[in-house]
UniProtKB/TrEMBL annotation, chain A:
CDD domains: WHTH_GntR. It comes from Cerasibacillus quisquiliarum. SMART domains: HTH_GNTR. It comes from the Bacteria. Keywords: DNA-binding, Transcription, Transcription regulation. The keyword Plastid does not apply. Residues 9-77 form the HTH gntR-type domain. SUPFAM superfamilies: Winged helix' DNA-binding domain. PROSITE patterns: HTH_GNTR. This is GntR family transcriptional regulator. It holds the Pfam family GntR.
TrEMBL record, chain B:
This is Multidrug ABC transporter ATP-binding protein. CDD domains: ABC_DR_subfamily_A. SUPFAM superfamilies: P-loop containing nucleoside triphosphate hydrolases (SSF52540). InterPro entries: AAA+_ATPase (IPR003593), ABC_transporter-like_ATP-bd (IPR003439), ABC_transporter-like_CS (IPR017871), ABC_Transporter_VariousFunc (IPR051782), P-loop_NTPase (IPR027417). PROSITE patterns: ABC_TRANSPORTER_1 (PS00211), ABC_TRANSPORTER_2 (PS50893). One of its GO terms (molecular function) is ATP binding. It comes from Cerasibacillus quisquiliarum. Pfam families: ABC_tran. The keyword RNA-binding does not apply. The lineage of its organism: Bacteria, Bacillati, Bacillota, Bacilli, Bacillales. Keywords: ATP-binding, Nucleotide-binding, Transport. Residues 2-224 form the ABC transporter domain.
Length: 131, 229
C-alpha cells in the first residue's frame, strides 16, 4: 500500500479518497476484507486516530461495513459502488472542464484533445503490457 | 488528561517559562514544537516533578502530582541514562527491580520489534540502536502517559522510520504521548495535537487535522506564520 499524502488536506479525507479509487478500479472488491484501523495506520504511517476517523466516515457513507467483532469489509451495495465511481468521474471532469473553460478552449477542441489523449494513453498502456 | 496551567520557571534571573498552559489527552499524540533552548525539556521535567516550578500547577486526571504519579507517567530522556557497560538485559533487569509497572512481555515484544539482541552491550550499539533501547525501557512500563524528549534527534533515517512506527503501533495504544521535537518533517501525519512554543510561551495549540480541514494549512505552514520565519 503506497500512498503519498499532501500536508494540507485532512489526512482522513485523503485516506477515504484512496479507498474510493481502489473500489472504483476494482482493486478492492465488493465484500472484500480491509485492514484493521491499526494495520492501516501502520501501513500508511499515519496517526491511529486519523485512521479511525477515516473508517468512521466511510462507515457512515456506507462504503464499508462491520459486523460484530469481524474485520470491516467493502460494501456490496451496487448503488453505493456505482455512486463512488460516478463521484470520482464527476470530480475529475469538473476540475478539467473548469481549467479548459478558464483558458477559453472550445468544446470541439476539448473533445478532440480528450479523444487524442485517451488514444495515446491506450497505446502507451499496450506498449507497457508488451515490455 | 495532563493539564499544564500557567507554569513559570526561573533559572536565576532568567525566566525560561513565562506562563505555559496546554493540555495533552490520553489516546492522543501531542507534540511540543520549538527551536532548541526554548523550554521544551524544562516543561517535560516540570511535568515529571524533576524540576521545581516557581508558579502554576500541573494536573494529571485532575489531580496534582504526587509519589504515585510515577506509576502513571514516565519520561524518556533524549539519551539513554543506563551505564554503557551494561547489556540490554541488565538494563531491563534494572528497570524490573526499580518499577512495579515494568512489563517484561512488552519489553520482549519491543526487542523483537526493534530487532535488538538482549546480550548486546549498550556501549557497542549504534546511536540509532541506543535510541531504540532508550525508548524500549520507557515504553515497556505500563503507564498511561509517556513523555519523550526529542526521540528523533540525531539518528539515522532507518532508525527514525522504525521509531516512527512505534507511534502507529499497539505500543502506544490508549496512552497519552507527549513528544518534543524541533523537526516536524517526518512526523506531520503522526501527531494529533501541535503545541508551538517560543521564548517560554505557548504561541499556538491546535489539532493538526482540524487546521488542515478548516484552513487548508499544514503544521509547517502554521509554524511559518507564528514563528515568522
Amino acid at each position: 500500500m503506497e500512498l503519498k499524502f499532501n500536508n494540507r488536506d485532512p489526512v482522513y479525507r485523503q485516506v477515504i479518497q484512496y479507498f474510493k479509487i481502489q473500489i472504483a478500479k476494482g482493486t478492492l472488491e465488493p465484500g472484500e476484507e480491509i485492514p484493521s484501523r491499526r494495520e492501516l495506520a501502520n501501513k500508511l504511517k499515519i496517526n491511529p486516530n486519523t485512521a479511525q476517523r477515516a473508517y468512521k466516515e466511510m462507515e457512515e457513507e456506507g462504503l464499508i461495513f462491520t459486523e460484530g467483532n469481524l474485520p470491516s469489509r467493502v460494501t456490496k451495495d451496487k448503488q453505493v459502488l456505482r455512486a463512488v465511481r460516478e463521484e470520482l468521474i464527476m470530480e475529475a471532469t469538473e476540475t478539467f472542464i473548469q481549467t479548459m473553460h478558464a483558458i477559453n478552449v472550445s468544446l470541439d477542441e476539448v473533445v478532440q484533445r480528450v479523444t487524442d489523449n485517451y488514444q495515446s494513453h491506450l497505446e502507451e498502456g499496450e506498449k507497457d503490457d508488451r515490455s | 488528561m495532563i493539564e499544564v496551567k500557567n507554569i513559570k520557571k526561573n533559572y536565576g534571573r532568567k525566566q525560561v517559562l513565562k506562563g505555559v498552559s496546554f493540555t495533552a489527552n490520553k489516546g492522543e499524540i501531542t507534540c511540543l514544537i520549538g527551536v532548541n533552548g526554548v523550554g521544551k525539556t524544562t516543561i517535560m521535567n516540570a511535568i515529571m516533578g524533576l524540576t521545581p516550578i516557581n508558579s502554576g500547577e500541573i494536573l494529571i486526571e485532575g489531580k496534582q502530582l504526587d509519589k504515585t504519579s510515577y506509576e502513571k507517567i514516565t519520561f524518556i530522556p533524549d539519551a539513554i541514562t543506563m551505564l554503557p557497560q551494561m547489556k540490554i538485559s541488565d538494563a531491563m533487569a534494572f528497570m524490573n527491580d526499580y518499577y512495579q509497572c515494568w512489563n517484561q512481555k512488552r519489553a520482549n515484544d519491543m526487542l523483537k520489534f526493534f530487532r535488538l539482541e538482549k546480550e548486546s552491550r549498550i556501549s557497542e550499539l549504534s546511536k540509532g540502536n541506543r535510541a531504540k533501547v532508550n525508548l524500549l525501557l520507557g515504553l515497556a512500563l505500563d503507564v498511561d502517559y509517556v513523555l519523550m524528549d526529542e526521540p528523533f534527534s540525531g539518528i539515522d533515517i532507518f532508525s527514525r522510520e522504525q521509531i516512527a512506527e512505534v507511534f502507529t503501533s499497539h505500543l502506544i495504544e490508549n496512552r497519552g504521548v507527549i513528544i518534543t521535537t524541533h523537526e516536524i518533517h517526518d512526523i506531520e501525519h503522526l501527531i494529533d495535537k501541535a503545541v508551538l512554543l517560543d521564548d517560554g510561551v505557548i504561541i499556538k495549540e491546535f489539532n493538526a487535522e482540524e487546521v488542515r480541514e478548516n484552513e487548508g494549512k499544514s503544521i509547517v505552514d502554521v509554524m511559518r506564520e507564528v514563528f515568522r520565519v
